[in-house]
Design a protein that fits this description.
single chain, about 75% helix
Length: about 160
């Protein structure tokens, strides 16, 4: 009899790779929200929920935490000489590079573009809409995310 999609949901969510990835994302976003509360003296509310669930940029990098956690588990379970580890490592490096460089550069360009739009709107009475500013990461945010992910990957591998 073939397995139904939800027959082994408990088994799926008990795998170290899944637990490490979910925990890395959750913990990184939680820390990011906590820092936002402390830094901006925010109250619990919609802004905090958005920060927790969807915020990009900031300390620590959840992208880096997740891919590092998953790659660490793969390395321990499959071995660092396995094809799966190699694939996981290179996808992690791409995600980390994107979080550090490409997304940050795009965010900085959007910030400048929004300033130009604001100036045009004020000086010439135009009604251009601002573009979304994507927050990339600083090197320290990515580094902390990587360390967080590695520690969680080790922890869930050894449970």
């Amino acid at each position: 009899m073939p397995l139904q999609p939800f027959d082994n949901l408990g088994t799926f969510f008990s795998q170290p790779i899944i637990l490490a990835g979910i925990s890395a994302w959750f913990l990184a976003q939680f820390i990011k929200a906590l820092i936002a509360i402390l830094k901006y003296n925010s109250r619990l509310g919609k802004g905090l929920i958005v920060t927790f669930l969807w915020s990009t940029g900031g300390m620590p990098s959840s992208h880096s935490a997740v891919v590092s956690a998953v790659t660490t588990v793969v390395g321990f379970q499959e071995g660092v000489t396995s094809t799966l580890f190699g694939v996981s490592l290179f996808f992690s490096l791409l995600a980390i590079r994107d979080a550090l460089g490409v997304r940050r550069a795009a965010g900085l360009q959007a910030k400048v573009l929004n300033q130009i739009i604001t100036d045009l709107n004020q000086k010439h009475g135009m009604a251009y809409k601002h573009v979304k500013e994507i927050n990339g990461h600083k090197a320290a945010e990515v580094f902390v995310g990587i360390i967080l992910g590695i520690f969680l990957g080790i922890a869930y591998t050894n449970l």
